C-alpha cells in the first residue's frame, strides 16, 4: 500500500511540477515581449503609471535576472500564495480574485460530479437487466455524452429560462442583491444554480450510465456469476456482487474523467455568466490578463490533483486488493 | 509451406467476409455510418454548391428559416446554412487531424511501453499518467491564449498532443497480453527487429481495436475543439460549428429568440459525435462475436 501511494504521490508531484514549469515557460519562451504587450493592453494613459507598471512587470517576471533565478523566484512566490496582481481588476491580487470565484465553481462541480456518478451508475445497472429500459437508456446516454456542454447549457437556458421564464439565465445571484446570508439571497443563489447544475449533470450522466451498463453485463456473464447461479443463489445476490465489482472501474473512470468535467464546468459557467473560475478565465483571455490566467490554471491543476488523490484513497477503502498490498500486482 | 501459403489468405478473406456480413446486419453501425456519411457529404460538397462565403453579408438580418435561407440569417445577415456547411467541414478537419495525431502518438507510446516493458515502460507510463492527470482544456487554454496563432491546424495539433494518454494506456494493456503469444516469440527468435514485430505481428492483431480508438479520439477532438472555439480561442479565419455557437451566445441570440442560430451548430456537433459513438458500438459488435445479439 505504501508502494501504491508512493507511486501516486510521485505522479501528482511530477504533474504539478510540469504544470508550474509550463506556466513559467510560456511567457518567457514564446515569441513576443510580454511586458510590452501587457502595457499596450492595459491602456494606461499616464506616463508615470505606465513606467510604474513596466517596472512592476519587469520585476515580477524578473527579466533582469538569470533564468534559473527567475525559475526559483517563481516557485518561491507561488509557495507563498503569491500569484501576482491581476491586470483586469488592476490592484487586486490574483489570489484574491480566484478565491472569490472558487466557491461558485466548487458549489457547481461537486454536486454535479457526485450526483451524476451515483445516478448514472444506478441507471446503468438498472438498464442492464431490463430490455425495455436498456433500449431507451443506451441511445439517450450516447446522445448525452456526444452533446457539447455549452450547447446543452444554451438549450436549457433558452427553453427553461428565456421561453418558459422559470429560471434566470445569467449570473450567480440576482443583480439587485449583494452577497449576504439572507433567505432572499440564498433563494436567488439556488435559482441561478439550477440550470448550470442541470446541464453539467445531464451531460455527465450518459457516460456513467453506459459504462455501468457495459460493466454489469460483463460481470453477469463472468464465471463467478454463472457459478453462483448454478449453486442456486438468488438473482438479487448475484446482482449485488456484480454491482460491487462493476463499480470499481467506475471509480477509476471518475478520476480519469475529472479533467473533462472541469472543462465542462468552465464552458457551462461561461454560458450562464456564472461567477466561477470559467467566467474568470474568459475575462482573463479577453483582457489579456496573463497573471490571472496563470493563477486560475494552477488552481485548476491543484484542484484536479487533490480530487484525484481523494479518489485514490476512496479506491483503497473500497477495493480490498489494493489494501492487501499491491505487491503482486505491481508489475 | 504451400498449404499454409494458400490457406492463410483464404482464412483472412473469409474472416473479412464474415465481418462484412455482420457489418451490414448491424443496425447501430448502419445508422451511425449513415449519419456520418450524410454530414461528411454536406461538409465536402456543400461549400461547392452554396453561393457566397460563410461570413458574407447575404441578406436581411434575423430572418427565420425560409426557402431562400434554409436555416435563416443571424443578426449580421449572414446565411446560417452557408456557415453550417463550412463549419461542418472545419469540424471534420479538426476531428481527423486531432484524432489522427492523438491516435498515432497513443499507439507509438502504447506499443513501445507494452512491448519493451522494463525501464522504457516505466518512463512512458509515468509520462502518460502525468498528462492524464493534467486538465487538458486548461493547458490548451493557456497555450492558446499566449500563442495567439489561431488556425484549425494549430488547434488540431494541440488537441492531438494532449488527448492521447488514455489511448496509450489501453493499447499498452493490449500489447502486454499479445507480446507473450507464440507467434510474437517466433518472430523475435527469428531475429525480427522491434518496429517490424510491432507493425507486422502485434498491430494487425488489434487492428479493429486501434480503429475504434481512432473513432473515439476523433469524436473527442471535435468536442474539445468546439469548447475552445466557444471560449474564443477558435480559428480567426473561416467558421466552425463552435464559433457559430460562440457568436450566437455572444450576440444574445438567446434573448432575441433566434433559435435557428444556436440550434443547428450544436445539433451538428452532437450528431457527428453521437453517430461516431453509436457506430463504434456497432463495430465492437461486428468484431467481437460475444457481443452479438442472438
TrEMBL record, chain A:
The chain crosses the membrane at residues 9-26, 97-119, 140-170, 190-210, 246-272, 292-318. It is a multi-pass membrane protein. It is found in: Cell membrane; Membrane. One of its GO terms (biological process) is transmembrane transport. InterPro entries: MetI-like, MetI-like_sf. Residues 102-311 form the ABC transmembrane type-1 domain. GO terms for cellular component: plasma membrane. Keywords: Membrane, Transmembrane, Transmembrane helix, Transport. Belongs to the binding-protein-dependent transport system permease family. This is Peptide/nickel transport system permease protein. It comes from Sphaerisporangium rubeum.
Automatic annotation (TrEMBL), chain B:
It comes from Sphaerisporangium rubeum. The keyword Transferase does not apply. Keywords: Cell membrane, Membrane, Transmembrane, Transmembrane helix, Transport. It is found in: Cell membrane. It comes from the Bacteria. Belongs to the binding-protein-dependent transport system permease family. GO terms for molecular function: dipeptide transmembrane transporter activity. Residues 88-282 form the ABC transmembrane type-1 domain. GO terms for cellular component: plasma membrane. This is Peptide/nickel transport system permease protein. The chain crosses the membrane at residues 29-50, 92-115, 127-147, 153-171, 209-233, 258-283. It is a multi-pass membrane protein.
Amino acid at each position: 500500500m505504501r508502494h501504491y501511494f508512493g507511486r501516486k504521490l510521485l505522479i501528482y508531484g511530477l504533474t504539478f511540477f510540469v504544470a508550474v514549469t509550463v506556466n513559467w515557460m510560456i511567457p518567457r519562451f514564446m515569441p513576443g515581449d510580454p511586458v510590452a504587450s501587457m502595457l499596450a493592453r492595459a491602456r494606461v494613459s499616464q506616463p508615470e503609471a505606465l513606467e510604474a507598471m513596466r517596472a512592476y512587470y519587469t520585476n515580477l517576471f524578473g527579466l533582469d535576472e538569470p533564468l534559473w533565478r527567475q525559475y526559483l523566484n517563481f516557485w518561491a512566490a507561488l509557495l507563498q500564495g503569491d500569484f501576482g496582481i491581476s491586470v483586469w481588476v488592476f490592484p487586486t491580487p490574483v489570489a484574491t480574485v480566484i478565491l472569490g470565484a472558487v466557491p461558485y465553481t466548487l458549489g457547481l462541480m461537486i454536486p454535479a460530479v457526485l450526483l451524476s456518478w451515483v445516478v448514472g451508475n444506478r441507471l446503468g445497472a438498472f438498464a442492464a437487466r431490463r430490455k425495455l429500459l436498456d433500449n431507451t437508456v443506451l441511445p439517450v446516454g450516447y446522445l448525452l455524452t456526444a452533446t457539447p456542454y455549452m450547447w446543452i447549457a444554451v438549450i436549457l437556458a433558452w427553453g427553461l429560462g428565456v421561453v418558459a421564464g422559470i429560471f434566470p439565465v445569467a449570473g450567480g445571484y440576482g443583480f439587485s442583491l449583494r452577497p449576504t446570508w439572507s433567505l432572499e439571497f440564498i433563494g436567488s443563489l439556488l435559482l441561478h444554480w439550477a440550470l448550470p447544475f442541470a446541464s453539467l449533470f445531464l451531460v455527465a450522466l450518459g457516460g456513467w450510465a453506459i459504462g455501468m451498463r457495459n460493466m454489469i453485463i460483463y460481470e453477469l456473464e463472468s464465471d463467478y456469476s454463472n457459478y453462483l447461479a448454478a449453486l442456486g443463489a438468488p438473482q438479487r445476490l448475484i446482482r449485488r456482487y456484480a454491482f460491487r465489482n462493476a463499480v470499481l472501474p467506475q471509480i477509476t473512470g471518475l478520476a480519469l474523467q475529472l479533467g473533462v468535467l472541469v472543462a465542462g464546468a468552465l464552458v457551462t459557467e461561461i454560458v450562464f455568466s456564472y461567477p466561477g473560475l470559467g467566467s474568470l478565465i474568459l475575462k482573463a483571455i479577453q483582457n489579456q490578463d496573463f497573471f490571472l490566467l496563470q493563477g486560475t490554471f494552477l488552481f485548476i491543476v491543484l484542484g484536479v490533483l487533490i480530487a484525484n488523490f481523494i479518489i485514490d484513497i476512496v479506491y483503497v477503502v473500497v477495493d480490498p486488493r489494493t489494501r492487501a498490498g499491491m505487491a503482486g500486482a505491481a508489475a | 509451406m504451400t498449404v499454409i501459403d494458400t490457406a492463410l489468405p483464404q482464412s483472412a478473406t473469409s474472416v473479412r467476409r464474415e465481418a462484412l456480413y455482420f457489418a451490414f446486419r448491424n443496425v447501430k453501425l448502419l445508422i451511425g455510418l449513415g449519419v456520418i456519411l450524410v454530414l461528411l457529404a454536406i461538409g465536402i460538397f456543400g461549400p461547392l454548391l452554396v453561393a457566397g462565403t460563410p461570413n458574407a453579408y447575404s441578406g436581411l438580418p434575423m430572418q427565420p428559416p425560409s426557402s431562400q435561407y434554409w436555416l435563416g440569417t443571424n443578426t449580421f445577415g449572414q446565411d446560417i446554412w452557408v456557415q453550417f456547411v463550412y463549419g461542418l467541414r472545419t469540424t471534420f478537419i479538426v476531428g481527423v487531424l486531432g484524432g489522427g495525431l492523438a491516435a498515432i502518438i497513443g499507439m507509438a507510446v502504447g506499443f513501445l511501453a507494452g512491448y519493451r516493458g522494463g525501464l522504457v515502460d516505466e518512463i512512458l507510463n509515468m509520462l502518460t499518467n502525468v498528462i492524464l492527470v493534467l486538465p487538458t482544456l486548461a493547458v490548451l487554454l493557456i497555450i492558446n491564449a499566449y500563442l495567439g496563432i489561431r488556425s484549425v491546424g494549430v488547434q488540431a495539433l494541440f488537441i492531438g498532443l494532449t488527448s492521447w494518454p488514455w489511448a496509450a494506456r489501453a493499447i499498452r494493456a493490449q500489447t502486454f497480453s499479445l507480446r507473450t503469444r507464440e507467434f510474437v516469440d517466433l518472430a523475435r527468435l527469428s531475429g525480427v527487429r522491434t518496429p517490424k514485430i510491432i507493425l507486422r505481428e502485434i498491430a494487425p492483431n488489434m487492428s479493429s481495436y486501434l480503429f475504434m480508438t481512432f473513432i473515439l479520439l476523433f469524436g473527442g477532438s471535435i468536442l474539445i475543439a468546439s469548447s475552445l472555439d466557444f471560449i474564443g480561442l477558435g480559428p480567426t479565419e473561416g467558421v466552425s460549428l463552435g464559433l457559430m455557437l460562440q457568436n450566437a451566445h455572444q450576440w444574445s441570440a438567446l434573448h432575441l429568440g433566434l433559435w435557428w442560430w444556436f440550434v443547428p451548430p450544436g445539433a451538428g456537433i452532437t450528431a457527428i459525435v453521437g453517430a461516431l459513438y453509436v457506430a463504434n458500438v456497432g463495430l465492437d459488435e461486428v468484431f467481437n462475436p460475444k457481443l452479438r445479439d442472438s
